[in-house]
Amino acid sequence: MALTETKVIDQITVTENGIVLYREATRILKDGEQIAQTYHRSSLTPGQDLTGQPANVVAICNAAWTDAVIAAYQAQVAAQQLSNS
Fold it and tell me: Could you tell me how far CA 41 lies from the centroid of its own chain?
């Protein structure tokens, strides 16, 4: 009986305002058959530092986060902060 654990990014979504959401699945296998699975979800905002992020997530961020997307997101955040003041 061999138990192994694998982790894989099984879902990546880009929202309308450029936020990247991704899900990492941790799978427990017993003799090659999956017996358990858990999920961890994370989000990244346009322009955020990508150091330490999975390579496939970084590739999606680099494709989605154009200068215009980053600027629009920063303007949206600034407007929300002004309206909350």
Answer: 7
Residue 78 backbone phi and psi in degrees, to 5: -65, -40
Q: Which two tokens stand for residue 71?
A: 């600027």
- Cβ-in-10-Å burial (0-12, 13-18, 19+) of 18 comes to buried
* DSSP-assigned beta bridge partners for residue 23: 11, 41
Query: pLDDT tens digits, residue range 69-79?
Result: 999 999 999 99
Residues 6+ apart with CB under 8 A from 20: 12, 13, 14, 43, 44, 57, 60, 61, 64
**11-49 pLDDT, tens digit each:** 999 999 999 999 999 999 999 899 999 999 999 999 999
